[in-house]
Design brief:
Elements lengths: L16 E5 L6 E6 L11 H12 L4 H8 L3 H14 L7 H21 L5 H10 L2
Antiparallel strand pairs: 1-2
Helix pairs in contact: 2-3, 4-5
């Protein structure tokens, strides 16, 4: 079964649902129905996958990097693209950058605690954050 497209594939306009059918009993209803107001339903498959991984990783960038085998700048770019697709604006750039540094610092220390990196590697990574 196909997903309902969020926009017209020809012109990008809004789509209107005119018929719904019950899978169980076959009842059909015709009329003008509002399309789903689900803001996530209009995401393309790549954006949906990124969102799922981002949530599973609880927003920790280095976890997303590992799961999707992509670089840190790619994670940031995909997140920005996702925010735009959802019509969400990011927190003020300075605050977002500050949060980003704090998040990276925490991720480095967590990796050190789990034994994924050495103390020397952690120290180098923390120095690069400045």
């Amino acid at each position: 079964m196909y997903s309902v497209p969020a926009r017209c594939p020809v012109c990008g306009g809004n789509l209107q649902i005119r018929e719904v059918v019950c899978e169980s009993c076959g009842t059909q209803m015709r009329g003008q129905f509002a399309a789903s107001t689900c803001r996530y339903c209009g995401l393309d498959p790549e954006q949906q996958q990124f969102l799922e991984v981002f949530l599973r990783c609880r927003g920790v960038y280095n976890c997303v990097e590992r799961e999707l085998n992509i670089s840190y700048p790619t994670v940031k770019a995909r997140l920005e693209s996702l925010l735009q697709a959802l019509g969400l604006s990011a927190v003020g750039e300075e605050k977002a950058e500050e949060m980003d540094v704090q998040e990276r610092r925490k991720a480095i220390l967590d990796a050190l605690e789990r034994g994924e990196i050495t103390a020397e590697e952690a120290a180098d990574a923390l120095r690069q954050l400045r």
